[in-house]
């Protein structure tokens, strides 16, 4: 079998190289090779290339979808000459590409169709910026589809705050992401110019059981308090829909009117605030564990609130120590971001870490693409962000460098295209 | 945009849905698909309601030059070979069926195919860059990305099959232009 041969060859050359270079790793390598059970064939445990996420439906995929390992955010600016009919043609082309790619089928005119064969849960999510919506008619633009107000913590770089069309490309396979992005960008080229792009990652598929809350680059368990996919909370908080379930989180039932101001073309969609937040890993290194846990109000090992034992225990923001101090500091990230009295003030965070190794200079550069989905930016995101801006211990190590706001239109059925209700309104 | 007015009427969502459902059906079912929703099935056929010849995954290379090529998968839903003999289009002054041949030195040349494309009974013929394809020449207007081009396929028995294909930016299939230049 060719795969087996290739692997044997590879193993042999690695051992040869190790021995030749230093000799130290070679022994260990050989030992591992010989103690391994004889290869009966290719290792097929955990094969996930053929896994699919549906493309068509009431909502776009990539929002409620359990986050894939790799996420790429492509922000595109419309060319000045791209008018309403151009936007329509663009969205038809990209929708058709996305419908095929996510289902493991090569788009039309794909010179590398084999790269489409392993979608690994590929999702492609479209976000519309203010100017794209305006090209269909200014009256269609919701008032919140605009830059966020300036915050004191912001260190925004203007070039990271642009774009009219967002493509969020997520998959458990990075080659799939690269291929999908290339196919989309080639079709977008006549209508748009790249504004910025950022790739991020989470724990790889298979590293942890599915559903495990991922850790960010600070080592924190991040995402615990998100509304659960498929829950009534999620339906209300993200899609602005009543939902059928009656079970709500500890804060009680969120209101059902968070999206009542949506124009018709956006019903079934949501909003996305995308913040590119630099995380200073070098100064975070200087903080000891108690200090780190204090800044968030949760344990690093389990993600449990400092007032609890398990990850999903409810933080008790009023609990005090014998000395009369709050166990969870009132200026910790959790205390500041969590409003126990207001069930509307919850968001769905679907974040991707990024990390790069500069050629010279700092040890490394890290951060996260903080993707916050919520039905209402005014009633959900902004009150939280304002409080964090006023005070949040975590601000000492984090600074927003990019910020964009997107309308996530509803999904579409087969034969239709994303945004049709806007462009044909 | 290269021209201010749309080149081709933007097809209705309904037509697009037909085109899409056609290609979906063609992908999920074998060659002998009994898909009756294809544009090709509107052709007067003999006893069977099955489409005689259909084109799925059709596309044309967007261009602002005066010629381009069109691709897709031809499927013969009948039990007898079908010969695609010619094609016409409102968008082009001249349409030809071309094949690409590679000589022993590895260089490929294109020429008009003699006798048309034979689509085998119950089988497919892929029209693709570097292979068989349909040349649209003397284009009346540029073909914009995302635009639609209507083409009529004509079989050796004189049946016409109207198809609509989408235009895509594509930097391959350069041999078309080489050939064009060598003609002069
Ligand atoms: C790099 C920046 C950030 C880091 C490292 C970070 C980290 C964390 C961590 C570790 C948690 C606790 C676990 C959890 O519930 O997920 C958390 C919770 C939370 N964060 Fe952040 N966060 C960041 C930025 C933000 C921003 C910009 C916002 C909103 C404007 C935000 C809103 C929240 C909310 C709402 C919660 C849940 C609070 C609750 O209801 O219990 N975070 N974050």
Automatic annotation (TrEMBL), chain B:
Residues 1-25 form the signal peptide. The keyword DNA repair does not apply. Keywords: Signal. PROSITE patterns: PROKAR_LIPOPROTEIN (PS51257). It comes from the Bacteria. Pfam families: PCuAC (PF04314). PANTHER family: BLR7088 PROTEIN, COPPER CHAPERONE PCU(A)C. This is Copper chaperone PCu(A)C. It comes from Brevibacterium daeguense. The lineage of its organism: Bacteria, Bacillati, Actinomycetota, Actinomycetes, Micrococcales.
